[in-house]
Amino acid sequence: MSQKYEISRPLPPNVKRAATILQWSGNVGFWGQLVLGVLAAALLFLSLAGLVAQQKSTEGTSFSVFCSVAGVISLVISILICFRYKKIAQLMRNPDAKLRPKKSSTLRLIRAGLLSNLVGIFLSIIGAEGFVGILWRKLSNIPQGAAVYDTSKLPTPSEILLLLANTHTILCHFAGIVVGLYLLDRLDR
Is the pLDDT of residue 167 over 80? Predict the structure, then answer.
């Protein structure tokens, strides 16, 4: 009985390099966005709970809240794409060249991650702009040097938390864009 032994060929250097870059970038993007994203989502949901508890809605908050939530949902998609980078890096280390992902499909995934981050950062900026406008309107209606007896005219902590949640979400998307651009620069050669 003769057994066939297949001699595995070593990975080409460019495939090893690409797998290492994808693994490293996937880890940085995944963990960086996950940690900052959990903080952004927690701030968002705390502020939403505060707004619901107040049972009064400032004019214009609903669209800003929608943009903020959509920005966080886009962030979740970006985190999943960064996790996928790590899985692709593992597949690239397969000695069988037929089972390795194609370069074109990997670059498409990186572009999809960039698009997710760009849409998310746009929505988060729109949400933050809306909240800044709301805060400005409230503060500009208070006369200079006047004592404020009607606290409904003051910004609430929930509104400020919503602004903070948006800025954290923007930072998360910025990190994802940096990772995506780094990957495009390193892998699209």
Answer: yes
Q: Looking at residue 126, what is its pLDDT?
A: 95
What is the phi-psi region of residue 145: left when phi exceeds 0, alpha when psi lies from -120 to 50, beta otherwise? left
Q: Mean of the per-residue pLDDT values for the chain? A: 87
Average pLDDT over residues 103-118: 95
Whether residue 36 has pLDDT greater than 80: yes
> How far apart are the C-alpha atoms of 176 and 149, rounded to whole Å?
45
Q: Give SS3 for 55.
A: coil
For residue 2, name the pLDDT band (cuts at 50, 70, 90).
low
The token pair at 177 is: 């864009």
Computed from CA positions of residues 97, 24, 114, 119, in that sequence, does the dihedral angle turn out positive or negative? Answer: positive
Terminal Cα distance for the chain, rounded: 47
If you write DSSP's letter for every residue of 78-147 in order, what string do you get?
A: HHHHHHHHHHHHHHHT-S-GGGSPPHHHHHHHHHHHHHHHHHHHHHHHHHHHHHHHHHHHHHHTSPTT--
CA distance 167 to 62: 18
- What are the distances in angstroms from CA 74 to CA 97, 108, 118? 33, 17, 9
